[in-house]
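Re: beginner question about structure tokens

> Can someone show what the tokenized structure looks like for a real chain? I only ever see the sequence side.

Sure, here's an example I had lying around. Input first:
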Amino acid sequence: MRKTQHPCYEEDYIDLTAMDYERWVEWLFTTNHNEWSDFCITDPERIVEYATRLFTEFAKAARPYTHEQVDGALWFLLGAQMELGEYLMDKHIPLAKRLDCIRAMYHPFADYLAPLQGDYEGSGFFMWWDLIVDNYFWGPEFVRLADIERMLGASWHEVVKASKRSRRVLQKPLQVWEQLYRQVDADHRALLDETLQVLKRILQLDDICCQGAALHGLGHLHHPEGWQLVQEYIQRHRSTLTEDEIAWMRTCRDGVVM
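And the corresponding structure tokens:
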């Protein structure tokens, strides 16, 4: 039997998938998510469809709302409340729809965040990929920190320190990420591959906030091809970067960003 991620424990729970799309968007942006709502989701496939449509037309949908409301909506969607990443991993939902949802995530960055040119108050965009990738794509059911440290042959802290100092990609973490990538199934790899392509596109946007979010995301994705994108970025922008910025980007390159 299929597990329901957000069941309707009580009759008065708000079923987000019983709403039409327009009502869902309004509820999403106007609800104070600091106070956890009693909600449920009875149709996981529909919530992925709603999220895909929202991301595709994000600039239009978010226009009436404040940055605080937009950021609250992002944290609700991606974080520990609605847990969109859980639905992206749900194999009961057609893979094509889940990939469409990931592909659509380019648009909030390109169409909404980039035109603001840094004039955005909030952390939702910077944390976007951290929330999805760390908690779900590479959640504890796939790998734990203790396992990674055993595979690395060193503590996480030691590898982070080495990464910050190294001009070249660290080979041992790269080998670990390649091994983990090979171990997951084709469905899982398809999600990782699509995310890599989206992050590559976001990194090319002419906006420092979008670029920072993409670098952060690549650092958490642990895709065996991701390090090259970060290394090339460092090389292109080296003359404009501080030593602290370069050190942080190196941890993104080696997949050990915090």
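Each token stands for a local structural state, so reading them left to right follows the chain. The beta strands are 14-15, 39-40.
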